[in-house]
């Protein structure tokens, strides 16, 4: 269980959120207006940003889709995923290729270095990498950016299937994605 206690974040004189308290017990959507501080909150949970005050507990090992794709540009999509797996990844390679194919990425796309993939293909790679990595908490910052409706539906189905019971916070403004996921929505508008 992930808990956020009395969290406040300020940049200079600007306060993003104040005294935020939240418990995340399973997969949830994080919804807030643009500029509220969702990315900043996820970065605090990832340990990349210090809160002004307050604490977070129970995050453990994090797997993430960052706001940017953060792929190794010279590696293929499959290699970007196997990179996060311990030991020899050979045994998982076949299943990872199947995941990409289910995600609409054909052999031609899988032969390319990540630098030459489309925006939506890069996003799919970042998402599969996060799902394959061993983690206690999943933090997903707008993971559906650049995906067409069919790909979005496949991504939502994969997330529903793979996330299990662990805490997940998925930041999105995409109402269709929220509907497809069917997860509880944490609305931070008035936090
Ligand atoms: N390092 C920083 N220094 C100063 N201000 C920052 C910094 N990082 C973010 N901000 C500001 O904090 C505010 C919230 O940014 P953030 O990216 O967390 O919002 P968001 O809710 O994720 O927005 P969006 O939905 O548009 O992606 C913005 O006004 C942004 O300019």
TrEMBL record:
Residues in ABC transporter domain copies: 2-191
Transferase among keywords: no
InterPro entries, alphabetized: AAA+_ATPase, ABC_transporter-like_ATP-bd, ABC_transporter_ATP-bind, P-loop_NTPase
Pfam families from the UniProt entry: ABC_tran
Domain of life: Bacteria
GO MF term list: ATP binding; ATP hydrolysis activity
Keywords, comma-separated and alphabetical: ATP-binding, Nucleotide-binding, Transport
PANTHER family assigned to the protein according to its UniProt record, in alphabetical order: ALIPHATIC SULFONATES IMPORT ATP-BINDING PROTEIN SSUB 2, TAURINE IMPORT ATP-BINDING PROTEIN-RELATED
The protein's name: ABC transporter ATP-binding protein
Source organism of this protein record: Faecalibacterium langellae
